[in-house]
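Sorry, explain these tokens?

___
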Amino acid sequence: INSPVCSGTTLNLTASTIASASGYSWNGPNSYTSAVQNPSIGGVTTLASGTYSVTATVPGCPVSPAGTVSVTVNQTPAAPVASSNSPVCSGNDLSLTASTIGSSTYSWTGPGGFTSASQNPVIVAATSANAGTYSVSATENGCTGPNGTTAVTITPLPAAPTAGSNSPLCTGNTLNLTASVIA
């Protein structure tokens, strides 16, 4: 067998070849039966966990003793809910968060080759290069689930306005201060 396997994948059962065997008979959890020597069960669930047995039939002989194998199907975790404190201004910290899924470990990927194994990583002093879509997956018992994603916007800091005044002026006159328009 290829056990343990993750839910949603294929479980492959194998029986050794018996000389002159005319057939094989598998029995297992959840009322599983098969007459194939090496059957595959696609899209398994945790209900496929348990003990499987196989017998061989040789013409003119009684059915063979059963060979058994124990199978474990681990639950594939769900996609974490990914979020962030986006939008953030350039130079501020970008905080990414993933919902807690059991005792999973996490794997983040993102723009510019970003990777992290933290559940809730922080990118210090984010820049426009950190803008884009971030993905996170959860892994538990060797099973990696689908990705959760979050889009991140990094707002550039505005340029410094050009300051001006009507200076010099005489005492008693009105001082007018001006600043250039920033989009």
